[in-house]
Amino acid sequence: SPSVLDAKCTEDGDCPMGNPVVHGNGIKTGKCVMFNTTHSTCEIYGWCPVENSTLPRKPLLAEAENFTLFIKNTVHFTKFNFSKCNTLQTNDPTYFKSCTYDPFFNPSCPVFRVRDMVEATGETFGDLALLGGSIGVHIKWDCDLDHPAAWCQPQYSFSLQDRRYNFRTASYYWDSQRRLYRNLLKLYGIRFDISVHGQAGKFSVIPTAVSFGTGIALFGAATVVCDLVLLYLDAKADFYRKEKFEEVR
């Protein structure tokens, strides 16, 4: 097409064979051909027809809002030799098939409904179901190991990272006449990016003693600094020196 600037030419030398067409759909064959009576363009080798920019008019899988996502996550704090999983430790084989995560009533269930995750970002499923989107799932572990292990529970939060998400995939095959074909699919969907952060702490006598001693040392250093300022830098240094020191003759 003459609208592709890199494809315009006047002779074959303007179309180096094998060079890709910038903003085009193939590689140059080395020939400059007549497009119409006024324009000549580089001939390309590529797939045809080229991909069009038609957007979907309605979600193709609207019922996906009731799909569920199972997220299993385990953290291990090596310093304290402590491990914890976000799933509830239960002997009931049907628990994970029937439970759904709720931050108040069922925080130990790692099964999340897609609609609930989308709504937690402040969006509605219908807005993302058409052109897709990207949602960040943040799992935060903040554990005080002086308390029972059951108190160490993850906190989930969700954020909208992108209002559009799509990708392409192709399948290639030969027909009966040994001609190469492909089926190119442009897929829209909701992508989930999961990130995990955590910290843990536990009381220990030795670090506490070190911190206490360091604090006392800082108090001593502060006294020395204040004396130096008042004795040598303050405008009333002489008065302070007379009050601090007693001269004996």
Descriptive overview:
With about 250 residues, this protein is an alpha+beta fold. The chain has 3 domains: about 5-45, no CATH class; about 60-200, atp-gated p2x4 ion channel domain (atp-gated p2x4 ion channel fold, Sandwich); about 205-245, no CATH class. The protein has 5 helices and 11 strands, in the order E-E-E-E-E-H-E-H-H-E-E-E-E-E-H-H. A hairpin with a 5-residue loop joins strand 1 (about 25-35) and strand 2 (about 40-45). Helix 4 (about 205-235) crosses helix 5 (about 235-245). The chain is flat and about 115 Å long.
Describe, in short, the structure shown.
Helices cover 22% and strands 32% of the residues.
Mean pLDDT: 84
Give me the strand/helix succession.
EEEEEHEHHEEEEEHH
Per CATH, the class of the largest domain reads Mainly Beta
Work out the helicity level: 10-25%
For the biggest β-sheet, the strand order reads: 8-7-11
Low-pLDDT segments: none
**What fraction of residues sit in β-strands?**
25-35%
Total beta strand runs: 11
Quote the distance from N terminus to C terminus: 107 Å
Return the domain count: 3
The major pleated sheet works out as: 3 strands, mixed
State the fourth-level CATH superfamily of the largest domain. atp-gated p2x4 ion channel domain
Pfam families: P2X_receptor
Protein name: p2X purinoceptor 6
Family: Belongs to the P2X receptor family.
Keywords: Cell membrane, Disulfide bond, Glycoprotein, Ion channel, Ion transport, Ligand-gated ion channel, Membrane, Transmembrane, Transmembrane helix, Transport
